[in-house]
Amino acid sequence: MKCHEIISKGMILRIVLTLFTFLWMYLQHPTHLYLILPIALILLDVSDGLFSMIQAKKNCFTVFEYQLTDKVVDSMSYLLFLFLKMDYVTLFFVGYRMLGVFLFYVFRDSSWLILFFDFVKEHMLYMYFFGKKYTFLVGFILLKIWFEYYFHTVVNVNHY
């Protein structure tokens, strides 16, 4: 199976699972949403790679098509937060990341993903554990920027 087919099947699976997950959360209003949602998003993010792992095509993860599609599906997932009544800071991080994904698409340069880092899941976990005490938030943001830099310059060197 070619990378394009693997990526398409993986993203369809991820979108379906994401819609079911958010529908369940919307209907159930689970307690500890800021803990459950980031964990669910991490698991959903991994789900799009199942077909690639089965086909032993790990190089599909480094192509621009996968990287872009993955970031767009992340952004679409984050838009579903509007139905879960998230706080405005979380929504700010959603919009901030979406701008970075758009710039990544336009310029095909992953440095935009470093500058416009994805801090949505981390912010929800921060809110769950620390509430609105923003004392440590800057430190967590700096750690996330370092992680994004390492990920996009060492681990997942772009090939586009």
Explain the overall architecture.
- It contains 8 helices and no strands.
- Helix 2 (33-47) runs antiparallel to helix 7 (120-130) and helix 4 (64-79) runs antiparallel to helix 5.
- The protein starts with a helix and ends in a 5-residue tail after the last helix.
- The protein has one domain.
- With 160 residues, it is mainly α.
- The radius of gyration is 16 Å and the shape is globular.
- The chain has helices at residues 3-28, 33-47, 50-54, 64-79, 88-107, 111-115, 120-130, 137-155.
Overall, the morphology is globular
Distance between the termini: 21 Å
Structural class: mainly alpha
Mean pLDDT, to the nearest integer, reads 88
* Count of extended strands: 0
* Low-pLDDT windows of residues: none
- Gyration radius, to the nearest Å? 16 Å
User: Can you give the helix content as a percent range?
Assistant: over 70%
Element-by-element helix/strand order = HHHHHHHH
Counting DSSP H or I runs of 4 or more residues, the number of helices is: 8
Count of structural domains: 1
Measured by DSSP, the beta-strand proportion falls in under 5%
For the sheet with most strands, the description reads: none
